[in-house]
Amino acid sequence: MNDIISTMSIFWLLMVISFILIKRGLSIFNDVAKTMGMFMLEKALGPAIDFVQGKPGSASKTWILHGMIWAMVASIFTFEGLWLSHDPTALHSLGSWGYSPDSQDLIYAGRFAALFGAVGMMVIGAGLHVIPSLSGTKLASESNATLVSLLWTFSVLILVIGAHSKEILGINFIMLGTVLQTLAMMAIILNQLLTISNATRPMAIPGWLIIFGLIGDPAAVLSVILSGAYETGVGQWLVYHMIGGTFFFCGVAGVSLYASSMGSGNPLWSRTLVGVTLFGAIIAINPMGETDMSMAVDMLGLEASEIAASSQDHISGSFLMALAAIPIIAFSSNLLVTLRGNGAFVGNSDSPGIAEMNMGAWMLIPIAIGSLFVQTDALGGAGELSGIAQSLDLLALWAVLIPLSLGASLYVLPQASGRKVMSSNRSRAAFWLMSGGAVAGLTFTIMADLNDMALAEALAENSSSITDELRTLGSVVFYGTVLGSIFHCTNVISGQFRGEMIDDEMQSSTTLTPQTYELANSATVRKIMAGGATLDTEIVPVTQSEEAGSATEL
After folding, report:
1. Coil, strand, or helix at residue 474?
2. Which of 398, 122, 359 is nearest to 260 (CA)?
3. Residues 519, 539: contact at Cβ < 8 Å?
4. What pLDDT score was predicted for residue 324?
5. What percent of the chain has pLDDT over 90?
6. Would you give the distance in Å from CA 216 to the centre of its chain?
7. Which residues of 450-489 are buried (b: 16+ CB within 10 A; e: fewer)?
8. Cα(141)–Cα(147) distance, rounded to whole angstroms?
9. What would the pLDDT profile of 244-275 be if each residue is shown by its tens digit?
10. What band does 350 get if pLDDT is binned at 50, 70 and 90?
């Protein structure tokens, strides 16, 4: 039986139904559904809703600040895990307190903190600002979204604890964290859907990326359950990558495309490529991620099974993963060209998140290609490249997902709160520390993994000293990521109290489509529309001169 095709077919059907319901609503039940939804978001919570403020932008601000803190925590856990891989007794003194983690426990906890704490909270927080902005309305319930951020943070804390010890006092902590996180996710989805229902203008495609990223998470789990594939290793592997391709990839793509256009002052290079990114992310299977499905298995409370893919599953899975190259390349190229339009780069002091998004877009394609080979090898049962899977997953996390979500948040947060970051110079220093530490440090770690794989293939009895030296060098260099995350976190939090105020005009500006289009010579309507112009774009004729130019005086 082809578990991949049957599960993906159900997933595609659920996404089509979701799109139809969002566009057309529930007919005569629209008003009833909206009233009940608002009641569930606010009145049903009773006195708890009075503990938070409902000021415009407060929800987005709270989620992003929590995400910044979790990024710092995740970098610390990951650094400690990398260090213990070559020095297992480094934290031995903490054993007197009853805390004796090993390298895998710390890296596992760091992945939970990074994925759901840092990336998840920054993407959701940015989406709480982007969706209302693109819809021309206000968030349905700022109070509920702010309150739910505390529930999500608490769920991530429980997941991090559960990564060290899954069961405490007879309670499965990872399952408990998953339940709390699901409740928070449902509240966010309902809040965003109610916001879209009050839209005063058609929402741009980056907003649809964010919405389908949110909906894709529960839809992926539901499709695996309905197909019955959750009991198989292939189904468990599939749900892990389906969530990675929707909630994480679509969410990150949506907020970063919005922030790249607004932050650089350039219209999106191609709205068609944004549509290709959305459609391709839903159709294909994202290859980035671990070959070990333990995270998905633990969060869903399943019994782990080994991947035993049939020939049909291997062919369909490999094809759908190769197909993911289309949306990945479309997103990366669209983001890079949009950023390039105004020369926005690391030196742009007004947009400190531009450099992070630029780096994430550049690193996306090579890491995705490497992940494709590793995942195809794992799905086929060979396992020859499994030795580098964990390090490559960490590289995708710290060189792609976190930079893109962080870069988008560094633009969205000042728009939501009304204050810039404390220091643009500190943001640039933090960027170089985080990017250099992550890319160089994890590259050395991958080199050590490759060396171990070569020794294992050669049946060598003794390990090489080069491996230990590479792991030591990798963990030391990765400490730059820890420093960079701390600089970013303190810089952003300080900016909320002492940062420069942002003008209202700057907050309300939009550049997703060009306001004017300069026409120097004859052109077809197709060419003008391909340049991003809409029916409301003003065409400005520009005269040309045949006179010789002169030197530019500097």
Report:
1. helix
2. 359
3. yes
4. 92
5. 38
6. 13
7. bbbeebeeeeeeeeeeebeebbbbbbebbbbbbbbbbbbb
8. 10
9. 989 999 999 999 999 988 887 788 888 889 99
10. low
E strand or H helix that includes residue 519: strand 516-519
Contact 66, 120 (CB under 8 A): no
Q: What is the dihedral of CA 491, 495, 497, 501, to 10 degrees?
A: 170
- Residue pair 404/256 in contact (Cβ under 8 Å)? The answer is yes
Burial class (CB in 10 A: 0-12, 13-18, 19+), 496: middle
| Distance in angstroms (rounded) separating the CA atoms of residues 43 and 62 | 21
CB atoms within 10 A of CB 504: 9
Name the amino acid, one letter, at 490: T
Cβ atoms of 507 and 415 within 8 Å: the answer is yes
Residue 439: exposed, middle, or buried by beta-carbon count in 10 A (0-12, 13-18, 19+)?
buried
Of 42-56, 297-311, 432-446, the one with minimum mean pLDDT is: 42-56
Give the containing element (helix H, strand E) for 516: strand 516-519
Q: How far apart are CA 437 and CA 444, in angstroms?
A: 11
Amino acid at 256: S
Q: Tally the residues of the chain.
A: 554
Tell me how far apart the alpha carbons of residues 174 and 168 are, in angstroms, rounded to a whole number: 10
pLDDT, tens digit (0-9, with 9 covering 90-100), for 360-401: 999 999 999 999 999 988 888 777 888 888 999 999 999 999
